[in-house]
Amino acid sequence: MTGRVRLPSLNALRVFHAVARSRSLVKAAEELRVSPQAVGQQIRQLEEALGVTLVEREGRSIRLTDAAIALSYHVRAGFDEFEEGIRRITTTSDRPRIAFNVSPYFGTRYLMPRLADFRKAVPDAEIVLTTLIDLVDLERDEIDLAVQWGYGDRKDVQSHLLLRDPKVICCHPDLARAIRGPADLLTVGLLQPSRSTRLWPDILLYLGLTVPKPDRQLTFDDSATMRRAAQQGLGVGLVSRIDAEEDLAAGRLVAPLGLDALVGMPEAAIPGFYVISTRPRLRVKPVAALHRWLLEQDWSRP
């Protein structure tokens, strides 16, 4: 059985945490409101205490060693635990409070029809439900759980897929007359999503095309706006399949390459809705209960 390790000073670890985040002695010093020399001294003392090199100087900048990078993950997790514990016990409410954020599209299309069941999942907690299109920073925004659109590749959170969001290439019926095959997509305006720079390139590659430099003069913050732009003939858009089926049936849009043109794309290239949180937050029972409820739902059924 391994004996307990003698921990270095908490202040030295706090300084190292700031240096590892910023990759800079100067920026860490500004954050901690001390001099860069004081930061350097704390790092040297930590290196002496641990017997390993953590920071190597490269001119006027620094480089974290492999040992420092490995240590930074554990130190960050430790400070996250501290912050979460303090936040929980200093809340003034008698009821546990869950800050839950969802993307507007997911909230409207999938969560709202389940709102009654959603509330029953944590009946004794106060749920503050917000909607943000922008990428959520759980720490900055003080969010416990969030459902975000993307590819599940964020390294700063725990991420679990709830639902894939396959797209359909759609446009106004008049514009569809100019599209007889995949190559014709490169001759018409492609409506660009501001939330992802890889969505169109992944699709064009799947269709066997050489990906041109994207024209991002006109981008759309959310899927609803892109959908309306496609309906108005402003260009070719990427519409969520469930919405595309509605618009195709109503004649508002056409899928010039067919409804199933993108069926078979690699899963890694298909975006989706992911529930994100952190390990410290998921140790709080009401947050864990709501997280579990989200994972248990069949979101493929709107």
Plain-language structure description:
With 302 residues, this protein is α/β, with parallel strands linked by helices. It folds into three domains: 10-89, Winged helix-like DNA-binding domain superfamily/Winged helix DNA-binding domain (Arc Repressor Mutant, subunit A); 97-157 and 277-296, Periplasmic binding protein-like II (D-Maltodextrin-Binding Protein, domain 2); 167-269, 3-Layer(aba) Sandwich (D-Maltodextrin-Binding Protein, domain 2), CATH 3.40.190.10. It is built from 13 helices and eleven strands. The strands form four sheets. A five-stranded mixed beta sheet has the order 4-3-5-11-6. A two-stranded antiparallel sheet has the order 1-2. Helix 1 (10-22) packs across helix 3 (36-50) and helix 1 (10-22) crosses helix 4 (66-89). The longest helix has 24 residues, at 66-89. The radius of gyration is 24 Å and the shape is globular. The termini are far apart. The mean pLDDT is 88.
Q: Unreliable runs, pLDDT <50, ≥5 residues?
A: none
How many domain modules?
A: 3
SSE pattern, N- to C-terminal: HHHEEHEHHEHEEEHEHEHEHEHH
**What is the count of DSSP helices, taking H or I runs of 4+ residues?**
13
CATH superfamily of the largest domain: Periplasmic binding protein-like II
